[in-house]
Amino acid sequence: MNYDSASNIQDLLQFGEFGDVNPSITDSATYTFMQAKTMSETFDGTEKGCYLYSRHWNPSNRYLADAMAALEGTESAWVTASGMSAITTAILQICNSGDHIVSSLSTYGGTFAFLNNYLKKFNIEVSFVDITDLAEVEAAIKPNTKIIYTETMTNPMLQVSDVPALAKISKKCGAKLLIDNTFTPMIVQPALLGADIVLYSMTKFINGKNDCLAGAICASNEFIEAISSVNDGTAMLLGPVLDPFRSSSILKNLHTLHIRMKQHSSNAMYLAEKLSELGLQVSYPGLTNHKGHETLKRIMNPEFGFGGIFSIDMDSMEKASALMEKMEMEGVGYLAVSLGYFKTLFSNSGKSTSSEIPEEKQKEMGMSNGLVRFSVGLDMDIHRTFDRIKKSLVELELI
Ligand SMILES: *Cc1c(COP(=O)(O)O)cnc(C)c1O
């Protein structure tokens, strides 16, 4: 495996117009031309060197997109105003009415809602499978299957997708393999393992500051040109473009991602181990008892650890709620959705970020009412954080 490409971000020559160490921010919606002919050629696609209008491309978004492409080892990328718009743009670009998608049942709640509820409008059918059961994936393929969809590490079940094996299946049936890598930037580079398109909610680890929403689509030149075509490109025509000010701030945060991922992972590993020792039911891919442990070890870049997300099963929503409220009071972190933040966040998945998934489906994927998902922060003193969680558990008589 070649993970060197992640460090290519550092080799990108991205500086401002006055030699500024950070690229200049382009504060313009539209761009001037000296010749009318160049403008018409930019519209018809024969001229590729000019900026036209910010919904199409703008220099700030280009810098961030180039860095994301370097991170993933793809030819190109396009940055969006949210993770959901990256996901929906990629899917709507590929599928026509009458097409079929095979998707992991365990995905981000918004993605599940889009696939299960929204795509009905377009007569696009979706079969949901246990993505770790490759025989089930293969059996779900139909002649009109255009996409196999999954997350490298699924939200919130933390199932690990065997990306190379799924790539083999998708190549065989002529479908595109779309992977949402939001939970595992740096740790896994799905495109190098055979994925056709890598999607991100940059709202999470990539930006890491919880100050904005953003997304990315990393793919081939051909695909990025297709989505940004003025005639029939989904990104150009639906318009989920990221604001250049945000692009520029996310790009600066991207340059510390490798350090942050290591710290998130080592903090999460520490808490997962210590909470397991207390006898709690902990799900973390870094633990050898986790179903996806071996798969992740096979596809990961070990330097960055097993990721910053783990969950504990408190059996009931009541116990989960009591624990989360207590932990917030004790200064463990915040009772809030989202993840990849420098502070620890926790939420009860079934009643929040996965509430779009009907309860019987939640049961089917093994999600308990008492599941508390932690996004472990960059805590300097993780021992102290553990002590506070333990104090909360003891005082509530949960252990
Ligand atoms: C948050 C999240 C999304 C959605 O991203 P937004 O930026 O909130 O639109 C998609 N996939 C995963 C795995 C997520 O965690």
Topology diagram in text:
Elements: H1 36-44, H2 59-72, E1 76-80, H3 83-94, E2 100-104, H4 109-118, E3 125-129, H5 134-140, E4 145-151, H6 163-173, E5 176-180, E6 197-201, E7 215-219, H7 221-227, H8 234-238, H9 244-254, H10 257-277, E8 281-283, H11 293-299, E9 309-313, H12 317-329, E10 334-335, E11 345-348, H13 359-364, E12 371-375, H14 382-395
Parallel strand pairs: 2-3, 2-4, 4-5, 5-6, 10-11
Antiparallel strand pairs: 1-7, 6-7, 8-9, 9-12, 11-12
Helix pairs in contact: 2-9, 10-14
The site of pyridoxal-5'-phosphate has 15 residues, from helix 3 and helix 4.
Can you tell me about this structure?
It is built from 14 helices and twelve strands. With 399 residues, the protein is of the alpha/beta class. The strands form two sheets. The chain has a seven-stranded mixed β-sheet, with helices on both faces. The protein has a five-stranded mixed β-sheet with strand order 8-9-12-11-10, covered by helices on one side. Helix 2 runs parallel beside helix 9 and helix 10 (257-277) packs parallel to helix 14. The longest helix is centred in the last third of the chain and has 21 residues, at 257-277. The protein is globular and about 75 Å long. Bound molecules: pyridoxal-5'-phosphate (PLP).
Q: Per CATH, what is the topology of the largest domain?
A: Aspartate Aminotransferase, domain 2
Please state the structural category. Answer: alpha/beta
> What is the approximate shape?
globular
Named at the architecture level, the CATH assignment of the largest domain is 3-Layer(aba) Sandwich
Distance between the termini: 43 Å
**Average predicted confidence as pLDDT:** 95
Q: Give, in order, the helices and strands.
A: HHEHEHEHEHEEEHHHHEHEHEEHEH
The percent of residues in helical segments reads 25-40%
- CATH-assigned homologous superfamily of the largest domain: Type I PLP-dependent aspartate aminotransferase-like (Major domain)
Question: Spans of 5+ residues with little confidence (pLDDT < 50)?
Answer: none
By DSSP (H or I, 4+ residues per run), the number of helices equals 14
